[in-house]
Write a structure and sequence with these properties.
mainly beta; three-stranded antiparallel beta sheet; 0% helix
Length: 71
């Protein structure tokens, strides 16, 4: 883990690095629906997570959807 005062040089500027939280959790949900004997499928996923400490500043959500076609 980085210290609270860790710095990095980018070009000629000093940038203060954030502190990484040690413990994270993630919860997700996914699904898939296929039709036409499996030739086509639609799928999706949604995920939310965050740090277990200092939760107000360390949260995220992401998702994806897609279409699969078998030739």
């Amino acid at each position: 883990l980085r210290s609270q005062n860790a710095m990095m040089t980018i070009g000629d500027k000093q940038v203060k690095l954030g502190r990484e939280e040690p413990t994270w959790a993630e919860l997700g949900l996914s699904g898939r629906y296929s039709f036409k004997d499996g030739k086509y499928a639609i799928f999706g996923e949604a995920v939310a997570g965050g740090a277990l400490e200092n939760t107000a500043n360390n949260q995220y959500a992401k998702g994806k959807v897609g279409l699969q076609i078998k030739w």
